[in-house]
Amino acid sequence: QYILHLPNRYRIWWWDLLHSDPLHVCVETLLIVMCIALVVLQRRSDWRLSLERKKGAPNEEEVEELLREWKEEKRRPLAGDGKDGVIGGKKKRKGGNEVGGGMSGLVVEKIVGSRLYFESDSFRSYNNDNDNTSNNDKDSDKGNNHPTTTNSLSTTNSSTPNKIPPSALNFATHDYLSTTSSPTLRRVARTALHHYGCGSCGPRGFYGTIDAHLEIESAVSSFLHTEGAILYSDGASAATSTVAAFAKRGDLLIVDEGVSESLLVGVTLSRANVRYFRHNDVRDLRRVLEKVAAQDAALARKATDQRRFLVVEGLYRNWGTIAPLEEICKLKEEFCYRLILDDSHGIGTLGKYGRGSLEHAGLKPMVHAEIVTFSLENALGSVGGMTVGSEEVVDHQRLSGAGYCFSASAPPFLSKVCLASVRRLGGRMEEVVKYLEDGDGGDVGEDDDDDEESTRKDELSQQPSDDGDELSGPALLTKLHENISLLYTTLTNSSHPHALKLRNRLSITSHPLSPILYLRLADPEATGRTRAEQTSLLDRIAHRCLVKGGVAIVSTGGHVKKYLQSVPEPSLRLVAHANQTREEVEVLVEALGEGVESVLANNDGDAMD
């Protein structure tokens, strides 16, 4: 009877409680309803998730179709997407015309001295494909009884197939100081690799900071005369993270429209207000700054109400031009802006001691440029990037730099290579030699095999024993500057028999002191041709230089242009290195002259026909 009367007693108790304490009853009822709702909704969400997964999954027919495509077409090669401009590259369309973009499967295996060595399987595969293509073309010509009309962009007919050589002179990479071919720095890399291993296994803020990282930060800060430096594990993310760390929503960025993709990505991620000025045009920069000042006056807004930055490169990668930093710094001071400078291609190439475009212009970091960022992957021959400046600039990025906080730190053995490269640039090779002599823990462990130990000793014995003969310091910079001048003057020498063939056909658009030389089609050749046609001609010239002249240069018309604010014209890119000789420059000019004459003369003749 007690159990039977329990619901009635509970109803009476609940009714009395409602009259005596209604708030308590409402809260308790609400909690019960919420618990029931959570249980029901959770089950329903799980059901919907499983349903969505079933909807997104392919059916049996789609699975069979995918498997059939994978079996028939197999995996496509990584280097054949046609988006990146490559060494001597060309790519065929179905119609037989060649367009810029890629040489499928051609891989650089190593760099020795001033030569690139291609992976044997890659250039053999390319040569075999070339043979098959030429044979198919011949067979199709035999079966065609009617004369064919030659397209103005078609390949020059040749009785011999175009064979890619196993090696070529290197005028393509950004290794300005020939760091990758330095025997001393290679020994440093080997020694450090035995000591540290390969990776760091963690971000800098957790357990990825190793003594090699702290040493390179201190060395670069001392070399550039700044209060501090911060090391990023990727060259592109250094510039991207630096811009996004300091500029936020509501701030203002005044950006040169010729900056590279990494800076533009940082500008986009910052979500700041952005205004562009024409590339290296100080007058247009003043116009933009004055327009902003006029808006400030109209809105009664102070210049200090928002953070404002000028964003430029010291030596522009895509143009080969040098920023007029003296005039830019004067405008910066006049209109109260800060300067973010990307000097990835200026460090190690410009200035008496290789301190970059600021030293070249007679300026100083922290004083004239508050934030300087650069990549370690060019003149210094390592991996990663750095940003230097005051202690506040560096410490701010240790918590706000996305590439620093969320990426694994740089491999410590490569940081040791960068440290040796900075000492080499500063003329302190005796410290590098001392590191090799002491070993610094770089000897192979006792657990290694005797064969590996003997092999390593044989490799080291084959390297030059006198490391003092290797150029370093101002002598290294002087050699690079001499090669830049030699390359520029030889290409523009009107009395040179091969440079004369370039006259009125190619024109140099880069700065005479830049190690990156860009040659575009001259106005008489470019007029009346689309960008695709110009790219095709330059690709054929670069390809002929590689095949006939044994010289590796880059045609840039097929480079990714999607993320650039201002797209440069299709060009041939030549890069000067410190270890190039006069004879090698002569080989380059001869190959370039012959290639230009062959491609453009035949193209003009076909067009006339």
List the helices and strands and how they pair.
Layout: H1 6-20, H2 22-56, H3 60-73, E1 91-92, E2 98-99, E3 108-112, E4 115-118, H4 120-142, E5 167-170, H5 183-196, H6 211-224, E6 228-232, H7 235-246, E7 252-256, H8 261-270, E8 273-277, H9 282-299, E9 308-313, H10 325-335, E10 338-342, H11 357-360, E11 371-375, E12 385-389, H12 391-400, H13 402-405, H14 412-425, H15 429-438, H16 450-462, H17 474-491, E13 506-508, E14 516-521, H18 523-526, H19 531-547, E15 551-552, E16 554-555, E17 571-575, H20 582-608
Parallel strand pairs: 5-15, 7-8, 7-9, 9-10, 10-11
Antiparallel strand pairs: 1-2, 3-4, 4-5, 6-12, 11-12, 13-14, 14-17, 16-17
Helix pairs in contact: 1-2, 5-14, 5-15, 6-14, 7-8, 9-10, 17-20, 19-20
Q: Based on CA inertia axes, which overall geometry fits? A: elongated
Count of individual helical segments: 20
Radius of gyration: 31 Å
- Unreliable runs, pLDDT <50, ≥5 residues? 78-86, 88-104, 136-160, 441-468
How are the strands of the largest sheet arranged? 6-12-11-10-9-7-8
Report the end-to-end length measured between terminal Cα atoms.
Answer: 114 Å
The pLDDT mean sits at 82
Count of strand segments: 17
Q: Assembly state here?
A: single chain
Strand residue percentage: 5-15%
Largest sheet: 7 strands, mixed
- Backbone structural class: alpha/beta
Helical coverage, percent range: 40-55%
